[in-house]
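*** Fold description ***
***
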Amino acid sequence: MTDDPQLSLKEYLATVQEVVKLTFDTPVWVKAEIRNLSIKAGHYYLELAEKEADSDQVIASCRATIWKFSAQKIVTQFERESGIELSRDLKVLIKVKANFDPQYGFSLNIVEIDSGYTLGDIARRYQQIVERLTTEGLIQRNRNLPSPFDLNRILVIAPENAAGLGDFKKDADALQRAQVCEFIYHSATFQGNTAPQSIMYSLAQALKQWAQTYNTAPDLIVIIRGGGAVNDLAYLNDYDLAALLCKRSVPVWVGIGHEKDRTILDEIAHRSFDTPSKAIAGIRNHIFELTQDILNYLQRIQRLSQQQIQAYQNQNDQFLKLIQSLANNQIMDALQRLQQIKANTTSLAQQHTQLINQQLDALMRETLLQNPKHVLSKGYAIVRQQEHVVASIQQIQSSDLVEVELHDGIFSAQLIQVLPHES
């Protein structure tokens, strides 16, 4: 057996306890991440850890405690100053005093928490996501999509049975009963480390079912949840979730938290609202504005149609007047030509009538001149034989008597000789 001093475990650990007490008697500030937290009888029991930045591998860990007698002051001050509920997965800057107990081992007693450090860490992670999305050209991608013309079917992702969902559904159900639009709901977890994965999975399953049920994509994707502690909403500041929503070809509207709350989803969404109630109000207003625009377009179409009809009517009236004027001119020209033709015809008829009258007069005179009595009075005679007028010696029968009519009487003669004219 060795001659070195021998100590019991209790004695040895008591020595360590004394060394720790003497060496770390003054509290120091330590940066750590809360891996787990539980509250028992007013005492806060924490598991603290430090991880490698690149691999998230734990390189140091220990237990820490906020004792009941100081917990109300420390925790209340932290939550009041930061607006963050003290919980797991927070990075914190804490003032601690080392403690070693032979029975319970090593732990840290927390005497103060710097709220500014935790807020700064959340803001830093938030800014890193914004810068990455901006560098990759994603941050404005969904925001730049055109607003949906018609809201017929809307996909809603929300925590199941949440108060914010109830506020949303009050107006949504009224719109659906009025057959204005249809809402299809899917639930997801919005709190804790698994929140981003839960939302992404819920969205993927919802779109898969949608494709099996409908022939067209949703007109709108709405993501809503009520307000909560800053660190609860900080779970939504996730790059993968934000990038997925940025790449959607359907506009994404979000209504998360209260007026003072803002997440990365507000940065990338097509439209962002403070609360679920304001999100459904935005949908209702959008439908109203579309309806009003349609009514305005209809009124404009009616007005333009009436103006066009009136213009065509005026043009038709002008054409009718022009046609009437041209027709009247044509008729007047025709009447003038007819009058001219009539005048010409009358003149020609008069001339022709005068010519005929002259010819008739001449014929009358000639006829009168050729009257047998007139002719006979000039010394001519009419020769008849057997009561037929003899116009040629070839008709004379020399054996028969001939009658000779003069202007003042008739005598009979016996032919002695018939001599033809010499040629």
